[in-house]
Amino acid sequence: xxxxxxxxxxxxxxxxxxxxxxxxxxxxxxxxxxxxxxxxxxxxxxxxxxxxxxxxxxxxxxxxxxxxxxxxxxxxxxxxxxxxxxxxxxxxxxxxxxxxxxxxxxxxxxxxxxxxx
Length: 117
Ligand SMILES: [Zn+2]
Prior knowledge:
Layout: E1 2-14, E2 28-40, H1 52-63, E3 66-67, H2 78-88, E4 92-100, E5 103-108
Parallel strand pairs: 1-3
Antiparallel strand pairs: 1-2, 2-4, 4-5
The structure holds zinc ion.
Zinc ion is lined by residues 14, 24, 28, 30, 99.
């Protein structure tokens, strides 16, 4: 199995829908570090699992410098965004979504809990 990961930064605004009092329900911004993990049994005809540039483009083209509530139709928590990114990137099995220093959410596709990277 081949593994690659791509780390990138996105700037975005969002507000969360919560059933308790929180400052996070007000519009605010983050500079998030997103790490996307992909794997493949065989390489493509270019010798890659997936092109790092395509991974970055898939994430930044939709989320960077946006109000994420205008982009997605779900509550844009770090957990939900990690899942959404994983579903968009070909061969992706894991996403780490570091919303701020010390706050990281992870989504790992079923069956990939013990993946090498
Ligand atoms: Zn936030």
